[in-house]
Design a protein that fits this description.
The structure is a single chain. This protein is an alpha/beta fold. Helix content is 32%, strand content 24%. It contains eleven helices and 24 strands. The strands form eight sheets. It has a five-stranded parallel β-sheet. A four-stranded parallel β-sheet has the order 13-12-11-17. Strands 6-7-8 form a three-stranded antiparallel β-sheet, with no helix packed on it. The longest helix is centred in the C-terminal third of the chain and has 21 residues. The chain is elongated and about 70 Å long.
Length: 418
């Protein structure tokens, strides 16, 4: 008897979701997508949730809602505990086992504290909605604590925000916190001036935004300085505790520390029993298949694949999105028509980073943009990538309102610790 070819996709990020959508309602193919969260998250805008620009529901959408028209796709809320490539099964935490014909692992990455997991308690990273809520609570609470501080020393500590890592995440977070302090909160307190908050961007390397050309990196540093952000390069972090940060021997007293310096891939390599690089990424073939394992594919931040310049593809949403779209088409052709897919080719759609109001940088091949043109390009690109018309419309209106009024719309501190 003929039966449907069962494709199990682990992970509902850009890559896993694009793969599922690419397989669509293809006859003869049955898809099961497993994720430990019930929503797809637009991570590039997560920092705006953390800094009270957007609400959580504006950067996330239920996976079931996105795939509701794909009748051959089943969505399961669960977490993978183990994979048996020989037996072609996936075991879920709490019981349950899925048999597969083809396995796609698109589980992304989490924070890496470079051998210091104890720092996570004091310096949260930004990968999930819970992370964003925690950081937003911490940032907003810091201003409230400063308002009632009994000493100038404690007030200064409360108004010091240290962001670790000078990549796009760190730069965008630093600019957003500075904008919150110097624009949205001005005039709302009586004992403090929020615009006097110290926002520190600490980077171990010689410059921020290292993947960008030096001219754009220099512009970003100047733009941050105009916002009041102090950029500290060549300062490797040596310790983080309840009192603050120690970087290059300097002790910095800060009530709020945010981590944006490193990532570690999901445990895909351990599940599959294959070697990984130092970041935990699984090496894959040009068609995204894992060498030596039949019908197993790894993509996105969990995979290691060199681009045309022989450098590993970066952990960007556009890489994951393109890999998912490619694999969806490739699997359809392979399963239904026994076609051999061409190798995956990444088409760079530009590196983008927003610094603040009217300030951003864009690098796309030989094209370099900065200032308001880059800011407009960044906004259009991110709205386009958002899933769902409703999200795009709401976010566009939020940004327009924030741009015209310099106000933030999501500044509620929840009563719970989350």
């Amino acid at each position: 008897m003929n039966r449907d070819h069962h494709v199990v996709i682990v992970g509902g990020g850009f890559d896993g979701l694009a793969t599922a959508q690419g397989l669509g309602n293809a006859p003869g193919i049955r898809v099961t997508l497993v994720d430990r969260r019930n929503h797809h998250l637009f991570q590039p805008l997560l920092y705006q949730v953390a800094t009270a620009v957007l609400s959580p529901g504006e950067v996330a959408q239920p996976i079931r809602s996105i795939l509701r028209k794909h009748r051959r796709t089943t969505v399961l809320l669960g977490e993978v505990r183990a994979v048996d490539p020989a037996g072609r099964t996936v075991t879920l935490t709490g019981g349950g086992e899925l048999a597969y014909d083809t396995l796609v692992i698109a589980t992304g990455a989490t924070h890496s504290y470079f051998g210091h997991p104890e720092w996570a308690k004091f310096a949260p990273g930004l990968k999930t909605l819970d992370d964003a809520r925690r950081i937003r609570r911490s940032v907003l609470q810091a201003f409230e604590d400063a308002e009632r501080a009994l000493s100038e020393e404690e007030r200064r500590r409360c108004l010091t925000f240290a962001i670790i890592g000078g990549g796009p995440t760190g730069v965008e977070m630093a600019g957003a916190i500075a904008g919150l302090a110097r624009q949205a909160l001005v005039g709302e307190f009586r004992n403090i001036r929020p615009e006097e908050a110290r926002v520190l961007l600490i980077e171990a390397g010689p410059r921020i935004l290292a993947p960008f050309p030096e001219t754009l990196s220099s512009y970003a540093e100047r733009a941050l300085a105009r916002l009041g952000v102090t950029v500290m390069t060549g300062r490797p972090v040596e310790n983080i505790d309840a009192d603050g940060v120690t970087a290059a021997g300097e002790v910095i007293s800060a009530a709020t520390v945010i981590w944006g310096a490193g990532v570690q891939a999901s445990p895909a390599g351990r599940w599959l029993g294959v070697e990984t690089d130092r970041a935990g990424r699984v090496r894959v073939e040009p068609d995204l298949a894992v060498e030596g394992l039949a019908h197993v594919y790894v993509l996105g931040d969990a995979s290691l694949l060199a681009g045309e310049d022989r450098r590993p593809l970066p952990g960007l949403a556009q890489v994951a999105q393109q890999q998912g779209e490619y694999l969806g088409r490739a699997l359809r052709g392979q399963i239904l028509r026994a076609e051999t897919p061409p190798p995956f080719k990444f088409r760079n759609r530009g590196n983008l980073a927003v610094i603040g109001r009217k300030a951003a940088v864009v690098q796309w091949d030989s094209v370099q943009l900065k200032g308001f043109p880059a800011f407009a390009f960044w906004a259009v690109a991110h709205v386009y990538l958002l899933v769902g018309f409703q999200n795009r419309l709401i976010v566009s209106l939020r940004w327009l309102w924030a741009y015209l009024t310099k106000r933030r719309g999501s500044r509620i501190i929840p009563e719970s610790s989350s």
